């Protein structure tokens, strides 16, 4: 399998403008993500997909591969599709799968990417990572999407609510009697499927939960899930930088 790792990186952000270029211990965030992703041996190539000349030039300056994409993309998935087309045309290569690596996770473990790549056998349409929930705060946090899946390790549903609901059991006891899982936001797409899902209309459930992956499920696509022991840490707002620096020291 030839797998292309794509790191979407927008300059404009309501909560944190210019986030990809912020300094974390002497390196920009996008450089740290790029270097971590490049350490994953399963990836045939890693490229940053941006919509801004400043990010484009910065990635080139540290020796990374980068492509310019439209400013009009509504999601990272759409940006990944344009980047795939440009990379295949520019480098005259064809990729079986694309892995969408979040550009605001400077400490992503290469092992995360390798676990996800383990799902990709040519038949898998889409794949993502999930992690067992260990604490009550995460379990009932509506900003942390939860997932339930079937015996084939295919996602049934994603929700901001806690799923499943355990009838007749006090919520304080739920973690003691059932395994719950949260979604880790890294995706793999089979290349032909990536082209198809970017043209799908928004689904009712996606609009209700504000979760893009529900569009794919609503239209009949299957999402393979793989359990990871590693957590994710994304930088969403400037206040997160302090914790990022502390993690770097450790």
Structural key phrases:
alpha/beta; two-stranded antiparallel sheet; 10 helices
Explain what the structure shows:
The protein has 250 residues and is α/β, with parallel strands linked by helices. The protein is built from ten helices and eleven strands. The protein has helices at residues 29-38, 53-61, 76-91, 110-117, 136-139, 174-177, 191-197, 204-209, 213-218, 240-249, and strands spanning 3-9, 23-24, 27-28, 45-50, 66-68, 97-100, 126-132, 146-149, 155-159, 181-190, 223-227. The protein is globular and about 60 Å long. It starts with a strand and ends with a helix. The relative contact order is 0.17. The model has no long low-confidence stretch (mean pLDDT 95).
Total of DSSP H or I helical runs spanning 4+ residues? 10
Distance between the termini: 35 Å
Report the uncertain regions.
none
Proportion of residues in extended strands: 15-25%
DSSP summary, beta strand count:
11
Backbone CA Rg:
18 Å
Provide mean pLDDT, rounded. Answer: 95
Q: Give the SSE order as H and E letters.
A: EEEHEHEHEHEHEEHEHHHEH
Largest sheet: 9 strands, mixed
Q: What's the helical proportion of residues?
A: 25-40%
Question: Structural class, from secondary structure content?
Answer: alpha/beta
Dominant shape: globular
